[in-house]
Every structure is written in C-alpha cells, then in structure tokens.
Specification:
With 123 residues, the chain is an all-beta fold. It has strands at residues 16-18, 34-36, 39-41, 50-55, 58-64, 67-70, 78-80, 92-94, 105-111, 114-120. The protein has a single domain, classed as Immunoglobulin-like, CATH 2.60.40. 0% of the residues lie in helices and 37% in strands. β4 and β5 (58-64) form a beta hairpin. Its main location: membrane. Residues 5-119 form the Ig-like domain. One of its GO terms (biological process) is regulation of cytokine production. One of its GO terms (cellular component) is external side of plasma membrane.
Amino acid sequence: MRVRPSFSLFLSDDFQLVIPQTSQEAQIYMGSKIIVTCHLTPEICAIAMQIKWFKETDCVCIYKNGHVIEGRNYKDKASLDTHVLQRGNVSLHLNNFSVSDVGDYYCQVISGDRTQQITVGDR
C-alpha cells in the first residue's frame, strides 16, 4: 500500500507537465480507446486548475470549474478522468480512435497566474 503525503492534495502554482517515458511503442487499433498520458509533477491536485487539450489548432476538450467541455469535433469522443485529477493526472481519453486522431496533442494547464504546456505526439 502506497501512502500519499497529505500535502500533495494542496494547490500549488509550482508544477511542471510531464509525459511518462515508455520503453516500447503501444499498439493502437482503429475503434479502440486510447489515453494520451500527461501528469503534473510534483503530484499535486489539479481539480481547481483549468486544463485544455488541443490537436493542432482544434480544441479537443477543456476542463474548468469541475466540468469537461468537449470540442465541437470531439463530442462523445474526448474526456478526462476527473477522479484522478487529485493525483495530478491530466491525461486525455479518446474513444473510437480513427486515422484522423493520429498526430500531436497539446496540453495546457493553468493555475492562478501560472501556465504550463507540453506537446504529446509521435515525435
């Protein structure tokens, strides 16, 4: 059992966005569900933050004030798992993966006056 220190749940403006490193490429199948992984470090609560995901210039989804709003082209396709935001997990979930979903994704997290952003893709 891993015990999380209680201070990790407090909001902090001192954070970075990171992409977990994997040693092998994932197999992705058309029609499957994929997760575009992204986390805050240190592991702090993101519930009170604003989270924006884009694919190139298209808005995929926005999390703000406890609600996820899907972009126009991503209705019933994009989501965030709001249950893991308290652990700093801001990963994007995409349902029914298709060829048009291949590409770079851009995540922006805003907390107070601090904004962090990162690009996740097949670089």
